[in-house]
From TrEMBL:
Any one biological process term the GO annotation gives: carbohydrate metabolic process
Protein name in the entry: GH16 domain-containing protein
Organism of provenance: Diversispora epigaea
Domain annotation GH16: ranges: 118-372
InterPro entries linked: Beta-glucanase-like, ConA-like_dom_sf, Glycosyl_Hydrlase_16
UniProt keywords, alphabetically: Glycosidase, Hydrolase, Signal
Family annotation (SUPFAM superfamilies): Concanavalin A-like lectins/glucanases
Biased composition regions of type Basic residues, renumbered to the chain: 25-43
PROSITE patterns (UniProt xref): GH16_2
Length: 389
């Protein structure tokens, strides 16, 4: 070996060491998580019936794309593209009370240069056991209507006769005088607490122990795919959340949420099967044509078996494809018949929630009630998946 060769070798070794070192110091983008505030406590996941299921899924080459948007002013987008050839064997064994353990053995071949981060093989719910992954049965009774709040039929839960044709909404609020109907508008109120708000200056951030009580209206029936739309002018005070959502019995959820103070944005979100992933599925969208607290805007979900499109004033601002929600052996895409709910709630109840909602509200400086004004709501049931009543 001559000197030149030795030198080249030395330089190469140095370069390799440097490269390895640089790799170690690469900044890791860590998605920030935000607590997902709920208008109501979530129903606990239903226990899974003890069963022994062995399923072999056919290997289907798929392309997975995961897009994560954080519900915050700074948004991070993570895009992973990979070709996956899977032969998954799923074994669910008996005596399971609250969660199912799934053993998955998958062969992954990828053309991507970056390694695929290994995902947890333990999920809360088993995959779809060979059934058609979406419940496309047409036995959900649904009624299409537009409520302009002139002749609204809002009933108390105890007077509802279970015939969805007899009423439009069920008042499920926890307080008195939670709404007023006036001049073709529904005024959704958030009522000031009668007790002291109980401000806590927690190191994690301020919050209130006692919350204002707001309106929640449930539709009298479930929607199984279709279009739901609300036209409203929201309360612009930080800490106040105006919401228009769908919610299924098993915790599939599609959201529009407007938080006070940030009056130039609307937030979209979705959940699947009661699985709460904080700040994972949320999106923040600019609202054109004036602030959300001084102008009326229309917020829409167009919910179809293969995608959900969120719209503001008729313009699509986000589309979620079902094929892009495949995770842990299942499409984590809302697909069960769901109530449509609208309301207003106090987002001051925990440091994370208050921070997200631009609160907490200082009730000592507020009137007896805060109000979001709803001009109309329209629900159109997809006739392919609903029995129209
Ligand atoms: C499918 O949806 C219908 C309502 O449309 C419901 O009655 C039925 O129980 C659902 N089936 C499953 C397996 O979830
Ligand atoms: C709505 O429901 C709540 C709770 O049952 C009740 O106190 C209230 O009077 C109802 N109606 C209105 C207009 O808020
Ligand atoms: C209202 O919707 C929820 C889903 O969030 C459902 O569990 C509840 O039964 C509904 N209440 C009424 C009175 O329909």
């Amino acid at each position: 070996m001559n000197l030149t060769k030795v030198l080249i070798l030395l330089v190469s070794v140095l370069l390799i060491i440097q490269a390895i070192d640089a790799g170690k110091h690469k900044p890791k983008t860590k998605p920030k998580t935000k607590p997902k505030p709920k208008p109501k406590p979530k129903t606990t996941p239903k226990p899974i019936t003890p069963a022994k299921i062995t399923t072999t899924k056919p290997a289907s080459p798929t392309s997975t794309k995961i897009t994560t948007k954080l519900a915050s002013s700074t948004s991070t987008k993570i895009t992973t593209s990979a070709k996956i050839t899977t032969s998954a064997k799923i074994t669910t064994s008996a005596k399971i009370t609250t969660s199912a353990k799934i053993t998955t053995s998958a062969k992954i071949t990828t053309s991507s240069t970056k390694p695929i981060s290994t995902q947890s093989s333990t999920v809360l719910y088993p995959p779809e056991n060979g059934q058609h992954p979406i419940n496309l049965s047409k036995n959900n009774k649904c009624r299409s209507f537009t409520d302009e709040f002139k002749n609204s039929r809002i009933v108390e839960h105890y007077e509802y006769n279970r015939d969805p044709r007899s009423a439009d909404w069920i008042n499920t609020s926890g307080n008195r005088n939670s709404y007023t109907l006036a001049n073709g508008q529904l005024l959704a109120h958030l009522i000031k607490p009668t007790k002291d708000q109980g401000r806590v200056n927690d190191p994690a951030g301020p919050y209130n122990k006692i919350l204002g009580q707001g309106l929640t209206l449930n539709s009298t029936y479930k929607l199984h795919f279709g279009v739901a739309e609300i036209k409203m002018k929201v309360c612009g005070l930080g800490g106040v959340v105006s919401a228009f959502i769908t919610m299924s019995d098993n915790g599939d959820e599609i959201d529009w949420e407007m938080v006070g103070k940030d009056v130039t944005h609307g937030q979209s979100n979705f959940f699947w099967n009661g699985l709460i992933l904080y700040g994972v599925n949320g999106g923040v969208h600019s609202v054109p044509n004036g602030p959300i607290d001084t102008n009326f805007h229309t917020y829409t979900f167009d919910w179809q078996p293969d995608c959900i499109t969120w719209k503001i004033d008729g313009q699509a601002v986000r589309t979620l494809w079902r094929k892009d929600t495949y995770k842990d052996g299942v499409y984590q895409f809302p697909s069960n018949p769901s109530y449509v709910q609208l309301g207003i709630w106090d987002g001051s109840g925990a440091p994370g929630t208050a921070n997200w909602a631009n609160g907490p509200i200082d009730w000592t400086k507020q009137p007896d009630k805060l109000t979001t004004i709803i001009e109309s709501v329209s629900i159109k049931c997809d006739p392919n998946y609903n029995i129209i009543v």
